[in-house]
Amino acid sequence: MSPDMLTRCFRAEESRARYWTQQAVELCSEIEDESLNELIPQLEEAQRVLDRDRRIIVIGGDKCGKSSLLAAVAGYPLIATVPLEEDYVCWRYRSQDGDVTASKFIPLENLEGLELVDTRSCADEAVAATVRRLIKGADVVIAVADGRSPEASPVWALLAELPEKQRSACLVAVTFTDRLVADAALALKESLREFCRERVGVPLPLYFVSPDKGSEANETFTLRVQEALAEPCGVRTAIRHLVECGKEIVRKQGSVLGARDRVARTDSGFLAGIEQEIDYFLVRQRDSLKGCVENYAEAGMRAVPTTVSKLCKTLGWFLSPVTLLRMELLGTGTEKFYYRTLRHEILTQQEASDTNFVLSCMRHWQSVRPRMKKTLECEIGEFPEAALAGDLRELRVRMGRELYKPFREMKLRTAYNKVFGTHVGWMAVGILLICFFLFIAGVLGVLGLDFFALASVAAAALVWVLGSVAHLLAVRDMRREVVVLSLSLHDLLRNTVGEAVEALLVSRVAAYRRLYTAPREKVARHEASLLPLQQRQKEINMQLNAAAPRI
Questions:
Q1: d(Cα 381, Cα 391) in Å, to the nearest integer?
Q2: pLDDT tens digit sequence for 177-187
Q3: How far apart are CA 21 and CA 408, in angstroms?
Q4: Cα gap 56→228, rounded to integer Å
Q5: Measuring CA to CA, which residue among 114, 89, 361, 387 is closest to residue 228?
């Protein structure tokens, strides 16, 4: 490349820094530690600073040679021939940010990643305001002063406003000095240094240039612009900052992996201790098993009066065809009502017990979480109450199904049907007699034999009254037999409830134990992947350290 050809430079170092810092970010996701995520935004910001186009802005008065000097520095003569219709024009190889406002494009690949900003005369206040905005994002500021009257240039006021850090990347180019005699040019440089110190506050590097001629001074100035692109706010500094951000992440990764290594080497059974605490949960649950079973068995006793009351309402107080029709399905209905009443009462009590169990598990989880974080460097997160509650809900449904087991073994439905079936015959006969007498009364009434018709109605009424009395006696007997059958279920129900409750207690402790499956797997995964992660962390750290001296 010709020495007067400008370029962004440091491409290899930039690619290397970007690659290894990205490797450091990817390693963070594999290490799975929240503290590492706090450093990533800083690195991403450093990446954005590095990726942006580096801006070189040329400022000066009217017809002082700004465009010609920029064309000479860029090695693209067309810049000097394009008139400025706006306050400025931005010359670029391609647009990286999508903003093509006031942009023109140069087909020189060596200028990729650069913005060359040519401005109109800063003597115009509107242009000066625009220049102040553009200078804030500039990496190199080239202030052009006409050598025939440099003190009158409008650039001095703008340079005096520059931040101290940006002044080190500011170059003053004095043009048209070739029209001065040698002694006058030498005196001009000395006077301008003093003038610059007075107006700007610091001496800025001065260069006598002749951009319209391919002189040695022009090449020297281009090289100086190239150096200014690197320091102190340019590409080299951006790469250095990106590498430092990457090294900071790598240092934090080393700290996290070192802590995990110490845990892997010195773990004295922390997870085994947690398992013992959960086993203690099960011991306490089994201690309360006997009282719980007795309470649930008594629920079966309490369900009997409710079932009998429902039965009496269904049978009614009088003999009727509706009662006769219900007798066929009464055994199934009674058994189902008894089972549902029993299940509702037991599961309601079990739900309250499960709620207390969830609260106990939550308190235990909250005590384990900081210990897990401190001892194993593993964050288990918030207590998964919804997941545990869902498991307990399924266990209660399973327990409800188990409660039907004694009903099925005792064949309670069949026994109920036998009780009700013994009364179906005489009820049917009574209903038929009533219907027969009413039919005879109707026929006699049609024939005009009113006396005999009334006698038949009276006979029907008598049968109904006698049948209703018999019905009440039958209801009393059926209720007594239903109570006896239901109470005979008590011992079998006690055994079934005991088995179901014990299974539920064991299962719900197991459900809580399963919540630690993910943390256990996470710790095991950390131990299994520790060596590969340490090797990658060391390699990334070595590559970033190797990159730093070359920047």
A1: 19
A2: 777 666 676 77
A3: 70
A4: 10
A5: 114
